[in-house]
Structure formats: structure tokens, C-alpha cells
Amino acid sequence: MMLWRAIVAAVLVGAAPALLAGEIASDARRSGYSFMGPDTRIMQDDDTSNPGMLFVLDGETSWGRTTGNANKACADCHGDAKTSMKGIAARYPAFDKTLGRPVTLDQRINLCRANHQQATPLPYESRDLLVLSAYVAHQSRGVAITAGDDPQLTPFVAQGHDLFMQREGQLNLACTNCHDDNFDKRLAGAPITQGQPTGYPLYRLEWQTLGSIERRLRSCMTGVRAQPFDYGSPELVALELYLMSRARGMPMETPAVRP
Amino acid sequence: MAALINVPARANAGDIIEIRTLTSHIMETGFRHTADGKLVPRDIITNFTCRYNGVEIFRADLFPAIAANPYLSFFTVVNESGKFEFEWIGDNGYSTTASASITVE
Amino acid sequence: MPTTRRQFLSLAGGVTAAGAIPIVTLRPVEATPAALAIAIRNALGEATIRNGKVRLDIPPLVENGNTVPMTVSVACKMTSTEYVKSIHIFNEKNPQPNIANFYLNASSGRAQVSTRVRLADSQKVIAIARFADDSLWQASAEIVVTLAACTEEMN
Predict the structure, then answer these.
(1) Which residues of C touch B (CB under 8 A)?
(2) Is B60 on the interface with C (CB under 8 A)?
(3) Residues of chain A with pLDDT under 50
(4) Is residue C22 scored above 70 in pLDDT?
(5) Mind listing the pLDDT tens digit for each residue in C53-93?
(6) Is the backbone peptide bond immediately before C22 cis, with ω within 30 degrees of 0?
(7) Which of A29, A74, A94, B87 qualifies as a FRET site for A23, CA 20 to 30 Å off?
């Protein structure tokens, strides 16, 4: 009897985590790409007509340019990004041992600048920072997302999950209300996606430029009439971490194009 | 600022080829205002020219209704190998160029 | 009125914490049908414009008015005697009636140009082609433009 119970317990523990209310089943997850019309998809598919690629090209130039008091370029330590950066963005936000918390790719770039190039940090959402993160993230295109797998990140993923489930703003909506429970329906003519962050930083037609996931999350918060979290805040990092872990296994698309 | 050009590397004499161009530019319309009512001045690319071995083969006048990071695709007949030269001119003395070569058999 | 809602939401957001001045789009002066007719006359003169030969490919329902892919093509063999000299694109409800002018020649091979345009509202887009013999042909398309659902303040 004891053995039987132990076996059942082991099977239950070993089985895939039970779906929380509203959570999307793993094989039902879809990238924002699948919610777009054919013209926008063509824009993303062709590297010579994808406006996000303009930023990737500029990022390639930045990668090789020396900067800071140390007069070093990213390439001096990291060599050819096509090999050294492959798969990196797919596992960000990642745990930083020194800081004891997760950092985003943008924050990692600025940490490198401070620690290794003796250069000033680039402002969040500045073109200089975006082209670098676009170039690095582009090297992970096609790679399956693994962010959040590190056990040290578990409490932060949980924090992000709580934020995802928490109602906020004058409209009193939580992310889950639209992006788990109502995707495929429309909001003011635009399709509601599942909010899978497979293509960041991406070229958004609305912005007419490339932007980060933090910019998108902040505008979502403004959209429900909540005060948006600051760029680089622990809340936005946790939320990005949760979203990436929610998309675990989906391939990266950077630079994506979205409406 | 980057430009992305798509020109086939080779073609046969007499072929009609498609040329695709994409360049970075904000294309500020001149119709937007800041929150305190000030007009954000117009800053757009106004002209695009493509020359093939020095001869103009395509030209465009662009207005604020052209989207940011202007994309243009057009066609031409190629009869000999040579070089395409692309030039974008705009407000505030903006000027940028790019080029691409093609081998025609 | 979509622009009013955007305008309200942008202004209600107020100035950002960093003190940066947000850019809002107040409802601009619209091109009227008269302005459109004048723009066409200025570009192409008084000659009659016939319907046909031109084809406008624009999605009838655009995902975002800021970037609308558009292809204009003209049924023409493009020979040294019969070819399209220029194609002119106009619109009805943007602040300005012109969108672009494209200049081709006898060795263009195909009278087809693609670009991406901005459309401020649901409206008509008109493409007019001028042939080498100065004849004018046109096509138009009615486009529905919806705006993105969540607005944002400038960063």
C-alpha cells in the first residue's frame, strides 16, 4: 500500500505541472506572427524588406566599433557575434550572480559597457542600445527559448507570474484576462494575441521604429490606464522573465514585425 | 544609417529584374505637435533616384504620406553588367547613397 | 473619430516622469475633395483621366495606418513606343493629397512599383498613370483603417 502510494505520488509530482486557470496549453501556443495579416507577415519574412533589419545592420556596425575609456569593441571580447551570441538572447533575462537577480539583455549590454569597456550606460530605449540588442537577439533567430530554466530564477518567475495575473489600472484588467482568456478575439479592430515575446526587439508599425519588450509592456499598462513601471524596474524584468518562460520552446524571431 | 538593397547578383541580357530598397529615415510628417502645442517640423526624404551605369532608370518624389523607413521596389531591363547607384535626398540637406552591382550574361 | 480618442488618451497621460515632452497628434487639417482635385490637376493638367489599365493592390482592411504596403501596376508592355512615363498616387483624407510620384521609362520592363504609405483614416486612394502619348488612366481603392488598440505616451 505504501509503495503504491509512493508510486502515485511520484507520478503526480513528475507529471507536467497542472494548468492554472486560463493558462494556455503548451501545444496551443502561437506567436504573434500567426495573428497578423499576410502583408505584415511578408514584411517580416523578407530580410531585405524587414525594417527591423535596418537596425540589425546598424547593430553590426556598433558591435565592431571601439568605445569607452578602455577603447574596446564588443568584438574584441566576443569575436564574431554569429557564433558567440547564438542562443544568448533565447535564455534572457538571465541570472546575474553579482547582482543576485535576473537582468535583461539590455541591462547585460550596459553592464558589459560599465565593467569591460569603461563606457557610460546607454539610455533605455535609445537607438544606440536598441541596435545592439537587435543585433545580438537576431543571432538567436530560430533558436528555442530557454529563459527561466535556471533554478535560481524560480522566485523571479513566480513574481512575474503574479504580476501577469494581477488586475491593474482604471480598467482593472490583468494581462491574463486578454492574453490567456481572450486571444483571437479583437480589441478595437486589432486581434488580441497571446503575448508571446518571441520577436523582441521588434519593429512595430504603430511605433514606426524598433522597440523593446519593456516599451510594449509599458504601453500595455498605459492602455489599461495604469501607471507603467519604469524602464529596467524589477517588476518589468520579472514580467519579461515570466513571459519568456511562458514561451519556453518557441523559436525566436528577432527582428519581428508587428502591427 | 543603413540601407538594404536587393538586386539579383546575376541575370541574362534582356531580363526584367526587380530592385528592392529600404532605408532608415523617420519621415517626420510635419503634422505632429508636442504636448505643449509646438509643431514638430517636417523632416522627410523628398526624392529617390536610381541610376544604372550613370543613366537614370527610376525616380520617385516622396511626400509625408510615405511611411517611415521608406521601402521602394521597381523594375528595370538589364542588358549589360554594371553598377546601380541609389540616392536619397531630403529635408535639411539630407543625402545618402548606396550601390549594388550586377553581372549580366 | 479615432484621432480624437488617441488625442484624448495621449493628453490624459500627461507629461512623463522624465520630463520629456510627449508628441501628440492633434486632428490635422484634412485634404478636402477640392484639394485632391487641385493636386491632381497640378500634377497632370486638365486632360481627361479614364478608368482602367491601372491596378492598385492595397489590403482593404489595414493592420495599422502608419505603414500600409501598396503595389501599383499598369497593364502596359513597356516598349520603346508604348510605355508608362509616370505614376502618381493621391489620397482623400490625409492632411495632404499627394502620396508619391514615380517616374519610369521605356526600359523599365514592368510598370509596377511597391512602397509603404501612411493612411490617416479610412479613405480612397487613387493611382493615375501617364503614358508616353500623354494619355491618363486611373484606378482607385477604398481602404478601411483601424488604429492600434493600446496607445502609449511618448517615452
Answers:
(1) 10-11, 14-15, 21-26, 28, 66-69, 91, 94-96, 98-105, 107-119
(2) yes
(3) 13-18
(4) no
(5) 999 999 888 888 899 999 999 999 999 999 999 999 999 98
(6) no
(7) A94
Query: Cell numbers of C94, please?
Result: 490625409
If you compute the radius of gyration of chain B from its CA atoms, what whole number of angstroms results?
Answer: 16
Residue B62 grid coordinates: 516622396
Predicted local confidence at residue C151, as pLDDT: 55
For residues A204 and A216, the answer to whether their CB atoms sit within 8 Å is yes
Distances, alpha carbon B32 to alpha carbons B28, C44, C45, in Å:
8, 29, 31
Please give the residue range of the domain that contains residue A163: 39-258
Topology annotation, domain B3-30+42-104: Immunoglobulin-like (2.60.40)
Mind listing the domains of chain C with CATH numbers?
1-29 (no CATH), 31-145 (2.60.40.2470)
Which residues of A are catalytically annotated? 220
The predicted-structure confidence for A140-180, as pLDDT tens digits, reads as follows: 999 999 999 999 999 999 999 999 999 999 999 999 999 99
Instruction: Evaluate whether residue A153 is within a structural domain.
Output: yes
Whether the predicted model's global pTM rises above the 0.90 cut: no
Pairing relationship of beta strands B3-6 and C112-117 according to DSSP bridges:
unpaired
Neighboring chain B residues of C105 at a CB cutoff of 8 Å:
56-57
Nearest residue of A to residue C114, measured between CA atoms: A49
